[in-house]
Amino acid sequence: MYLSRLDVLQVRNLKNVQISCHPGANIIYGANGSGKTSLLEAIYLLGRGRSFRHRDLRVVVNEDSDELVVSARVEREGYSQQLGIKRTAQGRFEARLDGESLQSAVQLVKQLPLQLIDAHSFTLLEGGPLQRRQFLDWGVFHVEHGYTNLWRRFQKALKQRNQLLRHGRIDKDQLRIWTAELIPLSEQITHYRKQYLVELNRQVVAVAECFDGLGILDIEYRPGWDVQCSLEEVMAADELRDVATGKTNHGAHKADIRVKVDGVAAAERLSRGQIKLLVYALKLAQGMHFQEKTGQPCLFLLDDLPAELDYEHRGQVVSCLNGLGCQYFMTGVDKSDFTGLVVGIDHQMFHMEHGVASVGGKTGK
Question: Which of 26, 40, 72, 126 has the fewest C-beta atoms lying within 10 Å of its C-beta?
């Protein structure tokens, strides 16, 4: 799966950009503010229906317009499809595949599986548990067909239980009904996540061997409650605390993962530069696992690669991406930062300037 053509209208300073994409390496370079990251943002919008830079899409739509449009020709094995999205400054969202409406962002995500690595990706190790749960759930969502429905049911039960806990006078019978609903859902989510991590660990070890200085990697799952007891026992003992705090204090929504290097927590052992490299390794391993399970590569977006990694490790990342046979888009300021990386590799370069993409001196329109 790869994008053969990309059309972007009114995404930030990209008023009207059309480019023909390479099925493998696509390099986008140019000065700060030229539109490099906006081009990645447009692809992300196409695959997720939202921006990775800002929650408020009103700032993503060009100031001279009231809507943005991103569309692409998606090449699949033996056939191609036209995928497109429209977002308005008022919040209206439309997505279409070959002219047929997609009813939700979940359907959109399945059409264009993306992996993004940018400056904020490093919160995967240094930030709170939410980022690590999102990393985990991305993988489970894409390989377990029933996971989306399970997750929705869990979120509904959790929301209902928390609303009940926030009331001044609590109906204990209702509380126990929602608790009984929540426990098996939480246990099923935990089962899927643990099963996924067992499989992912193999790819993590394999990818880590491609990078110098990372050591032996392992990911440990923490389910969100004391595993010495059943979740039913934990929640029964926690009822008074839940009432006092107005929230459910244990369950799959409190889960976390701990990434270890040579048996020690990565955040405690690695330097800042090594942590960046480890995030690349984790994302690449997840892409490798996705490809092994589905037979399809996912698409990688790497924002400002030269600023995040030294030259040697950049080469190792590019080598891994080429080994996956996936399409990827990389941004950077200087063309010279990439020329040595793609020697002997078929690729396409785009120069961004004032929101316009040019290829080989010709405007990419």
Answer: 126
